[in-house]
Amino acid sequence: MSETNSHGGFRVGAGRKKAEATKVLRVPESRIVDIKEYLKSSKKENEITDIRQFDPVTKLEIPLATERVQAGFPSPAQDYIDKKLDLNEFLINNANATFIVRANSLSMLNAGIDINDALIVDRSIEAQHRDIVIACVDNEFTVKRLIIDVKGCWLKAENDGYPDIHPVDGQEFEIWGVVTNVIKKFR
Question: Which among 166, 136, 161, 122 is positioned nearest to 148, based on CA atoms?
Fold first, then answer.
């Protein structure tokens, strides 16, 4: 009677990948639960939701006052309406390449972008240093500031609570479009 060993031995696709090194990490036993909870909560949230292509068919003209509004002391009210403003013309440069996406994180809070803000994104604009962009990193969309320096290009979060993204070799990285405007509701 031959005894077969059902454990161990060579199995195709099993085990650690040869190019991937591992390291033992020692932590106090009292912190294991905290670390596990942190790892669960630090899963990357989807930073962009609700991508929609802009529909330039609608036209709505809004009266445009000739007087600018002061942020300090108010000036006497003037009821002069000079012309009408169409928000499509004001916000959109290339309707066929324009999308509206909703922000779903606070990673750009210090740039004035909040959760649920509508971002107008033009895909026909070539991204430049310091532009706020929508990028696709490993098949996930993110909104960040594009930084181009001696190290190459990378994505800067505008909130200290979020990490910057420094693409590495082999990582999927594409600038999807440039954010041209932010639409923010106050009420």
Answer: 166
Residues with Cβ < 8 Å from 153, sequence gap 6 or more? 146, 147, 167
In this predicted structure, the answer to whether residue 96 has a pLDDT above a threshold of 90 is no
Tell me, yes or no, if 40 is annotated catalytic.
no
Select, from the ranges 6-10, 75-79, 136-140, 161-165, the one with the highest average predicted confidence (pLDDT).
161-165
Q: How buried is residue 47: exposed, middle or buried, by Cβ count under 10 Å (0-12/13-18/19+)?
A: buried
**Cβ neighbours for 127, distance < 8 A, ≥ 6 positions apart:** 133, 146, 175, 178
Is 144 catalytic? The answer is yes
Q: Which class for 74: exposed (0-12), middle (13-18), buried (19 or more C-beta within 10 A)?
A: exposed
Catalytic residue among 144, 151, 184, 185: 144
Given the residues 23, 75, 107, 184, the one annotated as active site: 107
Amino acid at 39: L
Residues 134-154 have pLDDT tens digits of 999 998 999 999 999 998 999
Single pTM value for the model:
0.65
Those residues with Cβ within 8 angstroms of residue 179's Cβ, 6 or more apart along the chain or in another chain: 119, 120, 121, 131, 132, 133, 134, 143
Q: What is the DSSP letter of 3?
A: P
